[in-house]
Specification:
single chain; 187 residues; mainly beta; 6-stranded antiparallel beta sheet; 17 strands; globular
Length: 187
């Protein structure tokens, strides 16, 4: 799904809806409407590109360094698409709020909120692994990685703040069951 030990050379730039970078002495140019952010995800060896009107994230694209689309999601339509060994996989989720793509773990995680927030986990084949309801005292915000752990950052609001008015915490996630274990403060 991703190449190991490859190195991109040069910076990533966005010019008039084109995202450009250099890889193996050639310029890669990807045209994406309303692209406003692009970065190299070194741990994943991918280029992440965010797009949306007025700098509000609505679509996110992951490309390998050679410019091939690896995964794409659209928060407005609730779709996630990726290619696995030449086959296109697709998931549709109602009220999708955030997606976490972790190719090393072969996992895709989703935060959705219909009536209440849910955490969903899929393997890279598109098979659902878990669906967990979020406790009402917390709001799930986004996914990140801390060392080798996948983290869900959750906002606990005023009822969960410490004496310094901090209420945002990291929750370590079991990538097979979705079980969340409270960790330290998120910054």
């Amino acid at each position: 799904m991703y190449a190991s030990h490859q190195k991109m050379n040069g910076d990533i730039i966005i010019v008039s809806n084109k995202v450009l970078w250099t890889f193996e002495n050639r310029t890669i140019a990807i045209e994406i409407e309303d692209a406003f952010f692009a970065s190299e995800r070194k741990g994943m060896q991918l280029i992440e590109i965010e797009s949306g009107k007025n700098f509000k994230q609505s679509k996110v694209f992951y490309f390998n360094f050679a410019g091939e689309l690896v995964l794409y999601y659209d928060l407005e339509t609730g779709t996630i698409e990726w290619s696995l060994q030449g086959n296109v996989k697709k998931i549709a989720i109602e009220n999708m709020k955030q997606v976490g793509f972790f190719p090393q773990e072969q996992r895709i995680f989703i935060i959705s909120s219909c009536e209440k927030q849910e955490l969903l986990g899929y393997d890279i084949e598109g098979k659902i692994l878990f669906k967990v309801n979020n406790p009402p005292e917390y709001k799930m915000l986004y996914f990140t990685k801390l060392k080798s752990n996948v983290i869900v950052v959750r906002d606990g609001g005023k009822s969960n703040e410490d004496k310094y008015n901090r209420f945002r915490h990291n929750f370590f996630m079991d990538i097979n069951t979705g079980k969340l274990t409270k960790g330290g403060l998120a910054y």
